[in-house]
Automatic annotation (TrEMBL):
InterPro entries: LeuE-type
A GO-annotated cellular component: plasma membrane
Name of the protein described by the UniProt record: L-lysine exporter family protein LysE/ArgO
Pfam short name (any one): LysE
Domain of life: Bacteria
Organism the protein comes from: Natribacillus halophilus
Length: 207
């Protein structure tokens, strides 16, 4: 069982290191709020969504859904539109306004954004289904499967809190918002790159 837990920790940590739309959103929320507790709606929501995806992936439910072509097309199309939107939101965000607290999202908006960035983000979902779901197949013993699943979930929760904390720390250091501007521009380009890749995948699906 210990091996399964270590496997889950290492695997999930490796996935978290990929700075995708979900991570960028949580980081930006940390940078946008003066107090860490104000980012909790987005952190907790994203963590819950990740927990659901991990459980579904381990159970094999999400893998079955993602093998249906119609669902794949809808998912990729929605994901493309979502990534274009969030990329533009990050690119056009004003760090000066953020520092004045006007750029920080309300709790309700954080929750809605966190749900979309978690469940409509093909990169995050495919990682969960393709990587965590596939790796879980090696465990037949219930105890090992539970240990692997819990390890993956714990890494998600801790990492998301950590991302918000890092964002808040940079906000404290970067009084003028110059670092945040640079990070936002790079983040937006990365997100748009993923969106372009989705268009290519969508093209392959409808051929």
């Amino acid at each position: 069982m210990l091996g399964a837990i270590i496997h889950g920790f290492v695997l999930s940590f490796g996935l978290i290191l990929a700075f995708g739309a979900q991570n960028i959103f949580l980081f930006n929320q940390g940078a946008a709020h003066k107090k860490l507790r104000h980012t909790m709606p987005s952190v907790v929501t994203a963590s819950i969504c990740d927990t659901i995806l991990i459980v579904l992936a381990v159970l094999g439910v999400s893998l079955i859904v993602m093998t249906v072509p119609v669902f794949q097309i809808i998912f990729f199309a929605a994901g493309f539109l979502f990534l274009i939107y969030i990329g533009w939101s990050i690119w056009s965000s004003d760090p000066v306004e953020v520092n004045k607290q006007h750029g920080a999202m309300s709790a309700k908006k954080q929750i809605l954004f966190a749900i979309s960035v978690s469940l409509l983000n093909p990169h995050a979902v495919l990682d969960t289904v393709g990587v965590i779901g596939t790796n879980s197949l090696r465990y037949s013993a219930t105890s090992e499967l539970i240990g692997f699943t819990i390890a993956c979930i714990v890494v998600s929760w801790v990492s998301f809190i950590g991302l918000a904390m890092i964002g808040k720390t940079i906000r404290t250091i970067d009084k003028e918002g110059k670092i945040v501007v640079l990070i936002n521009k790079i983040s937006a380009v990365i997100i748009w790159g993923v969106a372009i890749f989705l268009v290519y995948q969508l093209y392959l699906l409808i051929q």
